[in-house]
Amino acid sequence: MGFVGAGRTALVLAHAMDDAGYTVKAVASRSIESAKMLAAGISRCEAYSHVEKVVDDCDVVFVTVPDDAIRMVADSLPWREGQAAVHCSGALPIEVLDTPRRMGAQIGGLHPFQTFPIGQDANHWLPGSSFATEASGKLGDWLEEMVRRIGCQSVSIAPENRSLYHLTAVLSCGFVTTLLDVSCELWEGMGFSRDEALQALLPLVQGTLNSIRAKGTWQAATGPVMRADIGTLQKHLVSLAEHAPDVLPLYREAGRRMVRMAHRNQVVTQEAAERMELLLT
Predict the structure, then answer these.
(1) 184, CA 20 to 30 Å: which among 37, 75, 120, 158?
(2) Taking the C-alpha atoms of 157, 161, 165 and 166 in order, what is their torsion angle to the nearest 10 degrees?
(3) How many whole angstroms separate alpha carbon 234 and alpha carbon 248?
């Protein structure tokens, strides 16, 4: 196996595959230093600055470059009959690998539904993660078996749903960091440092995640919406209007979504839901 691109996804996947007994033979990157960094932790893995070497040396090639570059990179490589070309984008269909397909390669997609932050060892987070796999025939079977061997689970996403699938990762990961950043800004407005804000907020976040894992989303939800505490909601809106009016649209939209969740699950009455929806409009 080989990797074209030596970013965080490639680094985590290559090491996980190596640990599972797969032979990771080559990696290439525009930056030879990043390729060497990836190869350094894997026995018998060669680092190259020319991506063609990976295609020459490997039967299965993972194209782990940014989404906008996948088609261009794949179109430029000398694929051969019986080879496998696999991209690791969550949003793109496998049709971006049409050139390898026309040259005789099998094509597929393998996307880890996980975050790999810069400067952190993400390998210990990988077990138990989900991977979206897309391929047909033997390659599809091989990808699913590989995912199982690295301690993860595979899910099949219909091509027309890939963008929807990918945005759920943004909502549940990227936007969570945005919400926390907004909360930190509000704490800073009260005179606290960002570190002090995170010290207060992170146990709350972790407790919420633990509760969601144990009980589910709406069962773990707390706060004034779930209590139909309209007076507190009014105070929140007044406070934001005074101190952070730019946050008001975010609070109102999140609040309305929470009202609908609470009403759908019969936590609040129809009357209470209508009053809160009106207040948050």
Answers:
(1) 120
(2) 110
(3) 12
Q: What confidence tens digit (pLDDT) does each residue in 101-112 have?
A: 999 999 999 999
Q: Coil, strand, or helix at residue 218?
A: helix
Q: Mean pLDDT of all residues in the chain? A: 95
> CB atoms < 10 A from the CB of 161, how many?
10
User: What single letter denotes the amino acid at residue 173?
Assistant: C
Task: Return the H-helix or E-strand segment holding 201.
Answer: helix 194-215
pLDDT at 251: 98
Burial class (CB in 10 A: 0-12, 13-18, 19+), 55: buried
Residue length of the chain = 281
Residue 236: pLDDT over 70:
yes
Amino acid at 11: L
HSE (CB half, 13 Å, CA atoms) of 181? 7
> Hey, what CATH topology would domain 164-280 get?
N-(1-d-carboxylethyl)-l-norvaline Dehydrogenase; domain 2 (1.10.1040)
Domain ranges in the chain are 2-157, 164-280
Amino acid at site 211:
S
How many Å apart are CA 5 and CA 37, to the nearest integer?
12
Measured CA to CA, the distance from residue 138 to residue 59 in angstroms comes to: 13
* Helix-helix angle 230-243:248-264, to 10 degrees: 160
Asked whether residue 238 carries a pLDDT value surpassing 90, the answer given is yes
pLDDT of residue 256 exceeding 80, the answer is yes
